[in-house]
Amino acid sequence: MGKIGTKLPGFCLNRIRPHVRVRSPTIQSKVDAASDVTKNNADKKAENSGNVGEEKAGGNGAIARKIMIVVDSSLEAKGALQWALSHSVQSQDKLVLLHVTKPSSSKQAGEEPSKDVAPRAYQLVHSLRNMCQLKRPEVQIEVAVVVEGNKEKGPTILEEARKQEVALLVLGQKKRSTTWRLLMMWAGNRVGGGGGGSVVEYCIQNASCMAVAVRRKSRKVGGYLITTKRQKDFWLLA
What predicted TM-score, i.e. pTM, was given to this entire model? Predict the structure, then answer.
């Protein structure tokens, strides 16, 4: 006896269709792709734009900063200059020696006087420049002599620092008594940098760039006392 096969109806065969599931890209992959594009654009903008007071140096890829040091004939200013040359200035940096002189009848605030009007000022800054070149011949050094004018010395220094777009401002600081420090804390920024040590405090509190005040600790102990906007009299043994 032969086998009797079962024949399926034709409509059943028509209903059997292969189902292929196509997965669309997930939301996370779209987000990742968008973030990559944004990151690449940001990197390109960062490469094209530079920081204030900083420039790209030569082949070693180091950043060249512009450092301004306020100089005069005082021991405190010379000590700040020596500290900057030995502890802060790098070979690729540009150094600016700023001297603020008293006003004359023919000059306005912020203007640069001629050598004939302020011969002592130019003699001072150029002698300090020669000293810097002997100690750090690889560093580029500029000098600037400006008139204090109707403005006080503190605002004049900060205005010149903004014009020069410096990354670091260095000032020499004198040792003051406890009574004087309490008076400065009480006065705050109302002391506009007129005379004495208040110029340093005014510049540190109001500078748009990094400002550092430097004072020698003592001859016996050695080192420097560093003051910034966030920290005062930090002892740097050197």
Answer: 0.67
pLDDT tens digits in sequence order for the chain, 238 residues long:
455 555 545 444 444 454 545 454 554 554 455 555 455 554 544 444 345 566 655 556 678 899 999 999 999 999 999 999 999 999 999 999 999 988 765 555 556 666 655 778 889 999 999 999 999 999 999 999 998 877 789 999 999 999 999 999 999 988 765 565 566 566 654 444 544 457 998 999 999 999 999 988 776 667 888 999 888 867 665 5
- Backbone phi, psi, residue 222, to 5°: 85, 175
Hey, how many other C-beta atoms are within 10 angstroms of the C-beta on 207? 21
| Closest residue by Cα to residue 216 from 236, 189, 198 | 236
State the DSSP H helix or E strand holding residue 65, giving kind and residue range, or none if neither: strand 63-70
Residue 184: half-sphere exposure toward Cβ, Cα within 13 Å = 19
Strand partners, 54: 65
d(CA 31, CA 230): 41
Q: How many angstroms separate the first and last alpha carbons of the chain?
A: 113
Cβ 122 vs Cβ 145: under 8 Å: yes
Separation of alpha carbons 30 and 34, rounded Å: 6
Q: Confirm if 189 and 200 have CB atoms less than 8 A apart.
A: no
CA distances for 234 relative to 141, 158, 212, 219, angstroms: 28, 23, 11, 17
Q: How many CB atoms lie within 10 A of CB 205?
A: 14
Q: What angle, 0 to 180 degrees and rounded to 10, lies between the N-to-C axes of helices 198-206 and 153-164?
A: 40
